[in-house]
Amino acid sequence: LKWIAVPPAELNGNFEFDASFAEHLAGYREAFGDDLYLGASRWYNGNDDKLLHRLAQLSALLGIPMVATND
C-alpha cells in the first residue's frame, strides 16, 4: 500500500507552503516510511511553477519522492 500526500493548492504571500504542511509531512514520513509520496499536479491558477518548485524542495529536504497526480 502506498500513500500520497496531497499539497495545498495555494502558497502563502511569500510563495511558500505554510510551516504546518512541512511538519505534517515529516510526521507522515515517520509513520509511512518509504511508502509515502508527495503528489504533484498542475492547478492552473498561475502559480504552478512556484508551487512545483517548492514541492521539489520539500521532496529533497524530507526525502519524500514526488509522484505526478491528476484530477
Low-pLDDT residue spans: none
Counted beta strands: 3
Our Rg estimate from Cα atoms comes to: 12 Å
**Share in β-strands:** 15-25%
Question: How would you name the oligomeric state of the polypeptide chains in this document?
Answer: single chain
- Mean pLDDT equals 94
Q: How is the main sheet built?
A: 3 strands, parallel
Element pattern in H and E = EHEHE
Strand order of the largest sheet: 1-2-3
Shape: globular
Per DSSP, the total helix count is 2
**Ends apart, CA distance between termini:** 21 Å
Structural class estimated from helices and strands = alpha/beta
Structure description:
With 71 residues, this protein is an alpha/beta fold. The chain contains two helices and three strands; from the N terminus they run E-H-E-H-E. The chain has a three-stranded parallel sheet with strand order 1-2-3. Helix 2 links the parallel strand 2 and strand 3. The protein starts with a strand and ends with a strand. The relative contact order is 0.26. The mean pLDDT is 94.
